[in-house]
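Changelog-linked ticket: zinc ion example.
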Amino acid sequence: MIPPASKKTTHFSCLLCRQERSGATISPVMRDADAPVVQCSTCKLVQIGSIPSALELDTFYDQGKQAGNIGVSVDIDNLWTRQKDDTLRRVNRAATLIPKGSRVLDIGSGYGFFLREMKKKGYKIDGIEVSDLSRAISAKVAKVAVHDIDIATASAGEIAKLGTFKLITMFHCLEHIPDPISFLKRVRTLLTKGGKLLIEVPNIDDAMLDLSDPYRSFYWQFAHCSYFNAKTLSITLRKAGFKHVVASHTQRYGIENMMAWIVAGKPQLGSPSYSTSTTGLKGLEEWYKKDRIKSGKADTLLTVARV
Ligand SMILES: [Zn+2]
């Protein structure tokens, strides 16, 4: 587990224990905010030391939206090139969990590539996306229903209107949620009997956090409220009423990205950075990714849970 930045003990409201706790300061600041990252000494969850208010989060995400809006016109082909590997891997995983034709809901559906590819495979898919910009792009990409509803604050009636689903997916979404247990309890009401939830989040046991100080400084960001590993995500899901929680890992970023962080102290800028295009490195990269997954120290955590 990641070593603390100082021996100083901090007091904070733990998102998992749901009460005042103490723990070590993992980092005194985040890359984009003057907020500490702390680890609960009881449940071991790593989280932001002071949970941002709804207003702070709105302001933060509005800035992001403006940055997107003033950029050049959105190039969907370019976005697809960047997201293709992740999207197809997620579609293949989802397809192992439910029969063809099932109703699926993707929460935080972003630009809609997962929606489009699931639709192509014959699933009845809906999305939920609170960003206006992402929803506008996904309307062009996927042509399926994408709801503008915030599960964290919507009424039970509004949530129930969505119907029920055999599978709900959340890819790089839960780490942004200020109260993950309450959020997941609401998500659970949207699943059919025996329905499944597939969650993908960054893995806090990522070996790169031990290997590179610049990576470590870059890692902590204001938009992320929680930093899970298999154990803390399992506790979160069980506290929200889920059962049969099964974790696995995947390594998204390739060996060239790892070397860039170690040698140059910054990410690989070439795209895509998920896999090497250098023939002579392919065997080494395959070994690298397998080793990270086997040790539980890959960059990404996947968990499937049932109601
Ligand atoms: Zn705790």
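Closing comment: Example verified and attached. The two ends are 30 Å apart (CA to CA). The domain at 75-206+229-306 is CATH 3.40.50.150 (Rossmann fold).
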